[in-house]
Amino acid sequence: TNTDFINDLPYIQQAFYEALDELSASVKVIAKEFSEEIVLIAKQLCEPDPKLRGSPNVLAAEHIPQYDLQPYISHFDRLARIAEIRMI
Questions:
Q1: Which pLDDT score is estimated for 59?
Q2: How large is the average pLDDT for residues 27-52?
Q3: What angle (nearest 5°) sits at the alpha carbon of residue 49, between those of residues 29 and 74?
Q4: Is 49 left (phi over 0), alpha (psi -120 to 50) or beta?
Q5: Alpha-carbon dihedral of residues 42, 8, 61, 67, nearest 10 degrees?
Q6: Half-sphere exposure of 34 (CA within 13 A, CB side)
Q7: CA pair distance 62, 53, nearest whole angstrom
Q8: Band of the pLDDT at 57, cuts 50, 70, 90?
Q9: Is the pTM above the cut of 0.90?
Q10: Mean pLDDT to the nearest integer, 71-82
Q11: Where are the domains of the chain?
Q12: Spatial separation of the C-alpha atoms in residues 38 and 23, rounded to whole Å
């Protein structure tokens, strides 16, 4: 079938946001204090619109590739350290 990504994007985004709601509910069961951060990271990494995908700091910087994962590596490392300290 022939599809037009731009026309389909609102439907894809709606399904994506519903999936993020499900992710949020699941993470809250395991680690409520991290749920907002984890959902935000998932949103930034998986945003259906390629122009909006990625870290806002990276998107604003002209000298850093849009899909640079270093900010997320640092973020997950910080979350892991906090979880380890708190023994979640």
A1: 66
A2: 94
A3: 55
A4: beta
A5: 50
A6: 20
A7: 15
A8: confident
A9: no
A10: 92
A11: 5-86
A12: 9
